[in-house]
Design goal:
The complex is a heterotrimer.
Chain A: E1 2-10, E2 16-25, E3 30-34, H1 41-49, E4 56-61, E5 64-65, H2 71-74, E6 78-81, H3 94-104, H4 109-122, H5 139-151, E7 157-161, H6 169-184, E8 188-192, H7 196-202, E9 205-210, E10 213-219, H8 220-224, H9 227-232, H10 239-246, H11 254-264
Parallel strand pairs in A: 3-8, 3-9, 6-7, 7-8
Antiparallel strand pairs in A: 1-2, 1-4, 4-5, 9-10
Helix pairs in contact in A: 3-4, 3-5, 4-5
Chain B: H1 12-15, H2 18-34, H3 39-55, H4 60-84, E1 91-95, E2 98-101, H5 102-128, H6 131-140, H7 145-156, H8 158-174, H9 184-190, H10 192-215, H11 234-256
Antiparallel strand pairs in B: 1-2
Chain C: E1 6-15, E2 23-30, E3 35-39, H1 46-53, H2 56-59, E4 63-71, E5 74-75, H3 76-79, E6 88-91, H4 104-114, H5 119-132, H6 148-160, E7 166-170, H7 178-194, E8 198-202, H8 206-212, E9 215-220, E10 223-228, H9 230-234, H10 239-242, H11 249-259, H12 270-280
Parallel strand pairs in C: 3-8, 3-9, 6-7, 7-8
Antiparallel strand pairs in C: 1-2, 1-4, 4-5, 9-10
Helix pairs in contact in C: 4-5, 4-6, 6-7
The chains are: A alpha/beta, B mainly alpha, C alpha/beta.
Chain lengths: 266, 257, 289
């Protein structure tokens, strides 16, 4: 569904931010993208949305080539949510905020209403009156509002850039549940994050980026379970994973470890 | 942007004490004001500030960039002032409704330099003077340092606002925002999705910044210590005297001769 | 004996214009040299508490504070901000807005310069801060060009030059990647070991907190709901999760096992967990790391 082939990109006056990356993301995938600051994660996300055009290679969103398709058209298929929702939100009511993307594309008002209500429900903001001003929402709610405004065009892929910064654990889980629901419906989610705990519980696949290249692409169990690899690259493996290793077991999350222990010792 | 203009370097201008430099920018302003009705007399001032760009290591390239961007301004200035003085002096040419006289041209040039010269001078000042030295200089001449500091630090926020602006524009473009359609009023309205998040971001940055400054004792001591202070040397005295002589002379020339 | 670094009694606080209290009836004592970690869901008042202890509310930021707030024996509400300037250092979450100048040494000198200290003393303090945080060689570097983790180290250093008795950090790693996080957490550990500073940190990374904290405080809706040593707080099973706090993953393993009927103690640290689990179960010890 989303395909990148030999994509490279360099910022003017900068080093190569994305270096010869090839990858594909299918429907129903929950992918996590990890890497240290400056590895090129946000640049990659912007290339997928079409905000940046590759200087080499191509990026295809369905049949659309990002080099020849306007950003607003690509954005109908790929939704990109910033880390800081305050950089996106500007409307007087949550209704208008979510409707923005639809109005720009000329949808009819009754279709807009339908989609807005659906999107707000999707992010657990359905209980709020439609004329609620965004400034009355908490930080976590604003974040979900930003996601709703991007979901309104029913994109196939949702990209979340470091969505858990500033969110406490309970709200992180809520966010992950929303993503999981979307994935079950056949959408895909690409989440850029440092939070291995959440990745281990929710993502199926992990991409590791370093200096513009993808150095690892595999199942979550396999990548986050490779303690040597993670430590060599400067990441902190999950304690449950480390504990499992110490006990001679293979497990990633606390739940998996508990099961593994009980299996071994009924 | 002004404080963010400072670029590290070891040029003549960098080595000067901030006080004669500040005096210099004010002298440029004074001389430009005194010669605003005669472009020929303010031309030497212009040459001197272009020279200063080179001496500050900024590069004549940037000067021409400034002028290139100012060429629209130049054109507008020319049109306005030439038409205002079309009755005075010797007629040189007639272009449709516009009568160009020699006086008209001289005044137009003078007005152009009135703006360009001080602007370039201030650019040179901020590009070649460390922000901390600017603040120190203000404290020396009696301006409360809190004011100068706030000004300098606030300007330091500008680069981050510009970076955020890029991000905001990207995101709103992805939501389908089209900035290049519609009449002038519609276009202004279309900037709301960009301006509102930026302004709210700027306000929250200012809030955060004031907490950081407060927790670092900002404003505590009446007389703030400065570890890195400029020192006045012979070069500074020479520079100051030369500036007074040169710009003073031009001012007199512009006003009385 | 001397005064306690921090003594709060029945403190209520809110920002100007707010109807509700952000902090309600908070009583807290912190001993000299103690390391306290504060946790809790967003909006529970953690940052407000930091700003109250630092004297920023009500003196710098408009707000109302009720109750007793004593820092280093000084009653902040009575005596005003100037009385504690320099005694409390605060490091915030966002590295981008904490670096203001164009060179690391300027940045470090800023706070003592503001305090009007003599020039030589400032230079000495700057060198000390550079040393203690491993920032030697960074003197002339432009802070804007540093990584997030390095920026935070510079922010900590710029506060250390005031030689505060109390250091407070409000979510210092939440905007950093793994490398930056390690840098900052190691720096805090370092400070703890090599100075007598009292440290209060708001931090989500519970696995680090349990290794270093003397006391963990959990807040919810402006109140302190749990307080105690790491073992005390996290052995409470699912209670902490109720307050939006993520327990250490090794404790979660124990919760899971307990939920399935096994009565085992709840470890909080990795080393404890290994001990507990390998004693309770017969586990191959071949793969000792």
């Amino acid at each position: 569904m989303i395909e990148l082939k030999n994509v490279s990109f360099t910022y003017p006056n900068g080093p190569r931010a994305v270096d010869n990356v090839s990858l594909s993301i299918d429907r129903g995938e929950f992918v996590a993208l990890i890497g240290h600051s400056g590895a090129g994660k946000t640049t990659l996300a912007k290339l997928i949305v079409g905000l940046l055009k590759p200087e080499a290679g191509w990026v295809k969103v369905g049949d659309l080539d990002t080099k020849t398709t306007p950003v607003s058209k690509i954005a109908e298929h790929v939704g990109y949510v910033f880390q800081n929702p305050d950089l996106m939100i500007f409307s007087a009511t949550i209704y208008n905020e979510v409707a923005f993307a639809l109005r720009n594309r000329g949808y009819r008002e009754n279709e807009i209403k339908k989609r807005v209500v659906q999107a707000l429900k999707e992010v657990d903001l359905g209980h709020k009156p439609l004329d609620t001003p965004p400034y009355m929402l908490s930080f976590g709610e604003k974040h979900r509002l930003a996601i709703a405004s991007v979901l309104a065009t029913e994109p196939d892929l949702l990209i979340l850039d470091e969505p858990t910064t500033g969110l406490d654990y309970a709200r992180c889980l809520k966010l992950m549940e929303i993503c999981e629901r979307l994935v079950k419906k056949g959408k895909s989610v690409l989440i850029i994050t440092h939070d291995f705990g959440l990745i281990a519980e929710y993502a199926d696949r992990v991409l590791v980026m370093k200096k513009g290249r993808i150095i690892r692409d595999g199942a979550t169990k396999e990548v986050l379970g490779d303690i040597e690899f993670l430590e060599k690259e400067g990441f902190m493996p999950l304690q449950s994973t480390l504990l499992a290793r110490k006990l001679g077991l293979k497990a990633l999350t606390p739940r998996e470890l508990a099961s593994a222990i009980l299996e071994r010792n009924p | 942007m002004l404080a963010g203009l400072y670029r590290e370097g070891d040029t003549v201008f960098h080595r000067l004490d901030p006080r004669p430099k500040l005096a210099w920018t004010l002298l440029v302003l004074a001389a430009s004001m005194a010669t605003q009705f005669n472009g020929l007399k303010s031309f030497p001032v212009f040459v001197s500030v272009v020279l200063s760009l080179a001496l500050a290591g900024i590069g004549v390239k940037i000067a021409f960039l400034l002028i290139f961007n100012a060429s629209i301004f130049l054109l507008v200035t020319l049109l306005i002032w030439v038409s205002m003085y079309s009755g005075a002096g010797v007629v040189l040419a007639k272009l449709g409704w516009l009568t160009i006289t020699d006086v008209g041209l001289l005044v137009a040039l003078g007005k152009f330099f009135l703006i360009m010269n001080p602007v370039i001078a201030f650019v040179v000042f901020f590009a070649s003077t460390k922000p901390s030295h600017i603040i120190w200089a203000f404290q020396k001449i009696g301006v409360p340092y809190k004011l100068a500091f706030s000004f300098v630090v606030a300007l330091g926020l500008l680069p981050s606002i510009i970076k955020n602006a890029g991000d905001v524009i990207d995101v709103q473009k992805a939501r389908g925002l089209a900035l290049d359609r519609g009449n002038i009023f519609e276009r202004i309205r279309r900037y709301a999705p960009i301006l509102i998040p930026l302004i709210s971001r700027m306000m929250s940055d200012v809030w955060d910044l004031s907490m950081v400054l407060a927790s670092r004792g900002f404003g505590y001591a009446k007389k703030r210590t400065f570890v890195d202070t400029p020192s006045w040397g012979r070069l500074d005295t020479l520079f100051l005297l030369l500036s007074i002589a040169f710009y003073g002379g031009i001012a007199v020339w512009g006003l009385y001769l | 004996m001397g005064a306690l670094p921090v003594e709060l009694e029945n403190v209520y606080a809110k920002y100007a214009g707010s109807e509700d209290w952000i902090i309600e009836d908070v009583t807290l004592k912190v001993d000299r040299g103690e390391m306290v970690v504060i946790m809790g869901p967003s909006g529970c008042g953690k940052s407000t508490l930091i700003n109250v202890i630092g004297g920023l509310i009500p003196h710098i930021v408009a707000g109302v504070v009720k109750g007793k707030v004593k820092v280093e024996g000084i009653d902040i509400l009575k005596e005003g901000y100037r009385a504690i300037v320099g005694k409390v250092g605060i490091v915030y979450q966002n590295p981008e807005i904490q670096v203001i100048t164009r060179s690391v040494s300027e940045e470090l000198a800023m706070a003592p310069e503001n305090l009007g200290l003599p020039r030589d003393e400032i230079i000495e303090r700057v060198n000390w801060a550079l040393e203690i945080l491993g920032l030697r060689g960074y003197e002339k570097r432009d802070p804007q060009t540093l990584s997030g983790g390095e920026k935070q180290l510079v922010a900590i250093a710029s506060v250390l030059t005031m030689q505060p008795r109390i250091l407070m950090l409000d979510e210092p790693t939440s905007m950093l990647d793994h490398e930056g996080t390690k840098m900052v957490l190691n720096a805090i550990n370092n400070l703890r070991e090599n100075t007598e500073m009292t440290v209060i940190v708001v931090e989500h990374r519970v696995e680090w907190a349990v290794e270093v904290a003397d006391k963990i405080i959990v807040m919810d809706q402006g109140r302190i709901v749990l307080e105690g040593s790491p073992a005390e707080v996290f052995s409470r099973g699912e209670e902490v999760k109720k307050f939006g706090v993520r327990p250490p993953s090794v404790s979660e393993v124990a919760y899971e096992l307990r939920a399935r009927g096994l009565d085992i103690p709840v470890p909080v640290r990795l080393s404890e967990a290994y001990k507990v689990l390998s004693e309770v179960f017969s586990v191959d010890r071949i793969k000792e790391r």
